[in-house]
Write a structure and sequence with these properties.
The chain has about 110 residues and is mainly beta. It has a single domain, classed as Alpha-Beta Plaits. Helices cover about 10% and strands about 45% of the residues. It has one helix and seven strands; from the N terminus they run βαββββββ. A five-stranded antiparallel β-sheet has the order 2-3-6-1-7. The protein has a two-stranded antiparallel ribbon with strand order 4-5. The longest helix is centred in the N-terminal third of the chain and has 11 residues, at about 15-25. The chain starts with a strand and ends in a 10-residue tail after the last strand.
Amino acid sequence: MAEYSDWEIHTDTKAQMDAGARALGFTQGDGFLNGVRYTIYIYGTKYVWDGTYVPAPIGGTMRNMVAQPGSYAILRWFSPTPFPPVGMNVPNYVTIVPLPADSPHVFS
């Protein structure tokens, strides 16, 4: 079993993402929360492929990427215990979902 898990955090607005990160006790980058190391990257706009192609600036084609609504962050939780931990009060405007192992959104 991995000693960490990856999570996607979503809110409707950037202001909600900033407020949610503060409410959860996170700061951008690396940190510790209740003795557990974490890394969070608040990247804002998330783009996904819409299944079509558009002309590429250097010739040929490229995938057409479309902005998704809201503000996004990726979190790596360095603990074998589940996230969010017991007692963490997640604001109702924050959605947290686990990233599947095959997700293209990963930490490098």
